[in-house]
Amino acid sequence: MILLVAGKTAKAQRLTTRAEGEVTGYVDSMQVMVTSPSVKVSVGDDVAGWSVGGRYLVDVVSAASVDIVATASPRWNELRHVGSIEGMYKRGALTVGAAANVSHEPDYLSLGAALNVAVDLLEKNLTPFFAVRYGHDDVGRRGLGREHWSVLQRGGAQAGVTFVINRSLIASVQLDADFERGYLAKPYRYIPLFAEGSSEQVAVGASPQIVNALRLDERPVDSVPDARDRYALTGRIAGRVRRTTLRLDERLYRDSWGLWASTTDARVFVDVGARWLLQPHLRLHTQSSVLFWQRAYEVTSTKEGGRVVPRYRTGDRELSRLDTLTVGFTSKLRLNPQAQAPWFLQVQVDGAYTRFLDALYLTNRVSLFTALGVSAQWN
Amino acid sequence: MTAQQRLVLTLALAFSGCARVPAYQRETLAHPTMLLVGMAGVAESHIYAIQEGASGGGSGAEGGCGCN
After folding, report:
1. In chain A, which residues have pLDDT < 70?
2. Which terminus in chain A has less CB density within 10 A, N or C?
3. Looking at this predicted complex, what is its ipTM?
4. Whether B41 contacts B58, CB under 8 Å
């Protein structure tokens, strides 16, 4: 009996509870502001090899972007609720994980799930991993009945391998393939059209006044293909010397819309003191436009005197040629010395500059992302 | 050379420089900053998903861009 109670107590003492609260903020030169408080809790047993956890996040979005200014629409505010759960179980060399999430806002509902498996080989020197994921989104518009909403389905797979290079160097390579089918356009974006041969007058970054003066009366809604296949090859490497870790990620991306991109992300982790970790961060993203991108879409005339509107047209600047440089840092401070119940305070500040090389209304965007978080762990 | 042979050759070259490190020499590799997981948090990843036309390279389930 005493042994049984002692065993149960030992098991209870092995449990580790982690809790985290964070508030993030985003603001940019397009007058978009997002505030996102979130909480995360997880419980696990490191010895038995399992954990379960959940997260809840709210996005409070306020925007009056240049596109809205150009169409004389008022500033809008919106709430997005995101909930997710995840679990992990490790048995011998095999680790299995599962996650599910739901995201809800007045005009968008997204459900997603993922399953991943990893196998430790060669004394954990080689770890292949695989994952599959599926998502179902319902895309609507404010004031539009649910029966008129559109569906977007997302399926994807991931395969990769992590390998130890030497005692202080580790790397991984992974391939992601994601397939999107359904409504992929932006339902609130209306595209200005121009008469045949007049688009050359519409310069990069042309102001709303110039665009409104030159465009035709007709303004159709954003329209893109209803299928998109996306592939990403990602390499990661981390090396540690004394009190510093250098981490370098490179992602090469290509999709069936003709967009290619390169994203380089570098982070340095410096142990400034026994309880303070400083992490400078640099990210460079560069991409081409999709094949159907045009800064100014022209209508074409038919022999019968009619006008043909381009089948695919978009004003989504994230589908155009752009470069983004992000520079920032994260500071993580351990607030107390107790090993059994450590508390951490984390601050992150990232500034980004985006250069739009072939878009209307804007040639650049400056943004600031900040995060303030507190986390704790109890054994 | 077939595509399969090229793949085998590439993997062989990639892993040829790797040493087999036993468990008792993995102190540095066990440091939390050496974990090769996505470093961006949920909110930060969401910003990248909206600002960049590319995706992938992370892990887990994503959803609800909140940007329509």
Report:
1. 1-13, 64-75
2. N
3. 0.88
4. no
